[in-house]
Design goal:
5-stranded parallel sheet; 15 strands
């Protein structure tokens, strides 16, 4: 008799959507709507002021409030964010790093208000500051005290929140910054060992294996499907090896490589954006098909994120993609599909060998913290090589450098095709923040902040006083001010050296043009590159600065997080001939309004300004009307053409003929 019963199925991974925008109230409605559609875990995106420890009314927060995530300035905001969402039943991932102790403190305070058993809370704080110095830029303090706060969180959760993942080592942004698979493996694993080496001194030896088991990872899956799938198998095997050999962890369950994933946003294209749907699906397969290296949680970007903020429908489309894969296919009914495949085994071995070589170099430098400048330089170089391959056609990107003929997309037309944050959101958020400050017990807040200050200075665990400050009504900016005062601020290396690289192919005509204009100027063409606001996505600015350097320009690039006033001061002090600004957070209009006003006030209105970022065409028109000389978006991938544009802008200035 034939057995017609269905095979047993594995449980699917957690379905998440990385989301948050505008206000806590709007984000709460979005979360509840997504949960009603079958999402099984929350993934919270915070806005840049929250990520970097500033209140919504701080000078650096101007134009950034609610743009790339939800603003959470105090307990009231966190309370609103999770209203009617029972946290004891939820698995919540919070993408937060420099201010992770503070956001976790607010989360715990809200959970207690809901009557939850804190020890039963499940979820993750990313809490990976090292990759912030390398690729994302939302750091606050220098590396050593930042590492101390990471392990403070881990040590505190061991006793108070044993089901919580206190750190999510994030290789996602490493790949976004151009990392090769070997670099992504090595730099993430080096970060994990730096944290565990520090954590060893904060927990009992008997508890340490369990803490190793609570460390999780957050990775990227790019379009090279076989390589990415093999990378995940290499991650799994290397982590098991490190746990056994470096830390002596015997229990298999504590050596398990537990990871969540967001598939690649770097490869999403502004041109023919409907193609992104296929890219996202293929990238999801890389982290779901191999059972022995399957993600525990998956969140997919929306097809139109290269254009602007995705709408709820766009997010639903990505969620449905996961559900079709998990519930309609037979994927979860089978053992690993790739075990014993010789091509896969060979690629995994190759990736492991390359990663081990990088890890040995980093260990020789003293570990990840001491190797930050080395790793940053390697990423900038790797990203430059990646872009050069696209420019030269060696790497094919459909719709970008091949098969560019296209029909108009009905998906990108019509009113509301791209969601934008209401400009009134910032004023509304600031108004509620001012009301919160006015209504709280100021003396209780100051006492709690003083306890926090004392703990920071003494080396005591930062979590208990952070929770007390959250309950007292302190704000994100006040917590950040205490941390900055105790540990100092930091500017990470840019990875852009002053020495030109060996990359010369195709640059000769540009170098000749730069030399000609420089001769007419009587000095080398001076190009100031800046990152105004809180946006830490510096990859584009780094590549523009590096290519300008290789083309013979005299560049000035200080890195991220500059105010318009600081940029204008640099333009004046450097006697710049042209200014290039990179803004990817959506805050280009208010930041450029202030910068152009300051440029005119300083008598620098004649200096051409160019802007790059995710900028809708209507906004690009407004920027050009404001006096911006040129606007570049992700579709402008040919950096050499941008270099020639810069030369032309300077050559057209009256000063160039003097």
């Amino acid at each position: 008799m034939t057995d017609t019963s269905l095979p047993a199925r594995d449980a699917p991974w957690l379905f998440r959507t990385y989301a948050g925008h505008s206000t806590a109230q709007a984000s709460n409605a979005l979360y509840r709507n997504n949960l009603s559609k079958g999402q099984t875990g929350l993934s919270v995106a915070f806005d840049l002021p929250t990520q970097t420890g500033y209140d919504s009314d701080h000078e650096l927060a101007r134009g950034e409030v609610g743009k790339v995530g939800v603003p959470v300035a105090h307990l009231g905001d966190m309370r609103t964010l999770f209203d009617a969402i029972p946290l004891e039943q939820m698995n919540t991932s919070m993408t937060i790093n420099a201010t992770a102790p503070w956001l976790l403190a607010l989360y715990v305070a809200v959970a207690e208000e809901q009557g939850a058993d804190v020890s039963r809370l499940q979820g993750t704080v990313q809490n990976d500051i090292i990759k912030e110095y390398l690729s994302r830029g939302t750091y606050v303090c220098p590396p050593r005290p930042s590492l101390r706060m990471i392990t403070d969180v881990a040590a505190w959760t061991r006793s108070e929140m044993p089901r919580w993942n206190p750190m999510n080592i994030c290789s996602y942004h490493l790949q976004e910054a151009g990392a090769t698979p070997e670099q992504e493996l090595a730099f993430a694993l080096a970060t994990a060992t730096a944290v565990l080496d520090d954590l060893r001194g904060k927990v009992d030896a008997a508890d340490f294996p369990q803490m190793v088991g609570r460390i999780s990872f957050f990775v990227n899956a790019g379009i090279r499907f076989v390589t990415e799938m093999c990378k995940m198998r290499a991650f799994t095997e290397l982590w098991d090896e490190i746990c056994r050999e470096r830390y002596g962890v015997e229990e298999e369950k504590y050596r398990r490589f537990r990871y969540g994933v967001q598939v690649n946003s770097l490869g999403l294209t502004e041109q023919q954006p409907e193609n992104n749907v296929y890219r996202i699906l293929i990238e999801m397969l890389a982290v779901t098909l191999s059972k022995n290296a399957r993600a525990r949680a998956v969140q997919l970007p929306a097809w139109n994120e290269a254009l602007g903020l995705p709408r709820p429908w766009d997010q639903q489309w990505s969620l449905r993609m996961q559900q079709v894969m998990a519930y309609e296919t037979d994927l979860l009914e089978y053992a690993d599909l790739f075990d014993g495949n010789p091509a896969v085994a060979a690629k995994v071995a190759e990736l492991k060998e390359g990663a081990r070589a990088e890890l040995a170099l980093i260990d020789g430098m003293g570990g990840a913290v001491d190797a930050i400048e080395y790793m940053k330089g390697r990423l900038v170089d790797a990203n430059g090589a990646r872009i050069a391959r696209i420019e030269g056609g060696e790497t094919v990107v459909v719709g970008v450098n091949r098969y560019t003929t296209t029909e108009p997309s009905p998906l990108t037309t019509g009113e509301g095709a791209i969601m934008v944050v209401d400009p009134a959101v910032e004023a509304d958020q600031i108004g509620r923040l001012e009301a919160w400050r006015a209504a709280r017990d100021a003396a209780a807040v100051q006492a709690a902040l003083e306890d926090l200050r004392a703990a920071a200075r003494s080396g005591a665990n930062i979590m208990p006083p952070s929770i007390a400050a959250a309950k007292a009504g302190a704000t994100t900016g006040e917590w950040g001010d205490v941390v900055r005062a105790a540990f100092g601020e930091y500017r990470a290396p840019t990875g852009v050296s002053s020495a030109p690289s060996n990359r010369t192919e195709g640059l000769e005509p540009i170098r000749e043009a730069v030399d000609a204009v420089s001769a007419r100027l009587g000095r080398r063409l001076k190009f100031v590159v800046g990152k105004p606001g809180l946006d830490g996505h510096s990859n584009g600015a780094e590549q523009i600065a590096a290519r300008a350097r290789d083309c013979g320009m005299d560049i000035h690039y200080e890195g991220i997080r500059l105010t318009p006033a600081e940029i204008v001061a640099a333009v004046r002090e450097q006697d710049a001939h042209v200014v290039g600004l990179s803004i990817l957070s959506g805050s280009h209009m208010p930041l450029m309004e202030e910068l152009t006003r300051r440029m005119r006030a300083e008598g620098l209105g004649h200096v051409p300004v160019i802007v790059g970022g995710i900028i809708p065409e209507d906004d690009a028109d407004r920027l050009r009307a404001m006096g911006v000389a040129a606007v570049y978006t992700p579709k402008d991938f040919e950096i050499n053409r941008i270099m020639m544009d810069i030369v032309g802008l300077v050559d057209a200035q009256p000063a160039a003929a003097e």
